[in-house]
Write a structure and sequence with these properties.
Pfam family, one: Methyltransf_25
Strand content: 25-35%
Radius of gyration: 15 Å
Low-confidence stretches: none
CATH topology: Rossmann fold
InterPro entries: Methyltransf_25, SAM-dependent_MTases_sf
Strand order of the largest sheet: 3-2-1-4-5-7-6
CATH class: Alpha Beta
GO biological process, one term: methylation
Keywords: Methyltransferase, Transferase
Number of domains: 1
Distance between the termini: 37 Å
Mean pLDDT: 97
Protein name: SAM-dependent methyltransferase
Length: about 200
């Protein structure tokens, strides 16, 4: 499905970074930090972080999307490492990253506990998780995101999954999400920031 969605010349979610990431990027620390970008698709967030001087690994299930991410990085003249992987199964190295950025990474509910454990595992002590996703309230809207609630987390789920972390912010609310033609209007989102002890 994602290969088909990304098989177009334009960038479905645009080439600009997510607003929430742009607001919170200072929490990652002074570059260069090692940053893992989950479900980075066509690379807009990974390339943004690379332009700031961070060393980025962009992971996605779609090789078509990541080829576009590579092209975007080349266009912006920054290095970007990419990895095609199923986030519900992939194992990341322990203590490998200073930050994990998860922007609209929507995997099935059954696979999320594995992904959450991997995020906790791969972050270094003191490492930051910066996450924005659609919540179940988004599903009936026609402004982007999954069409089933199974793929959308809640703040309560994230707070439970990262209960051992220092939770800096956790909130659900509606905001305008304007990112290419893929996200276009009022969205029901959860924004979550946590630091590994």
């Amino acid at each position: 499905m994602w290969d088909e969605r990304y098989a177009t010349d334009d960038y479905v979610y645009g080439t600009e970074p997510n607003d929430f990431l742009r607001e919170q990027v200072g929490l990652i620390g002074e570059p260069p930090k090692k940053v893992l970008c989950l479900a980075d698709g066509e690379g807009r967030n990974g390339v943004y972080l690379a332009k700031l001087g961070h060393r980025v690994l962009s992971v996605d299930a779609s090789p078509v999307g990541l080829r576009k991410a590579t092209r975007l990085a080349e266009r912006e003249n920054v290095p970007l490492e990419t990895l095609v992987a199923d986030l519900t199964e992939h194992t990341f190295a322990a203590g490998a990253f200073d930050a994990v950025v998860s922007i609209f990474c929507h995997v099935a509910e059954a696979g999320r506990p594995h992904l959450h454990r991997q995020v906790a595992r791969t972050l270094k002590p003191g490492g930051m998780l910066i996450l924005e996703a659609y919540t179940p309230a988004q599903v009936p809207r026609d402004t982007g995101g999954p069409d089933t609630p199974d793929r959308t987390p809640t703040a309560a789920e994230l707070e439970a999954a990262f209960a051992d972390f220092e939770i800096l912010s956790s909130r659900e609310f509606d905001r305008q999400v304007i990112e290419g033609r893929g996200h276009s209007g009022l969205g029901a989102v959860v924004q979550f920031i946590a630091r590994k002890p």
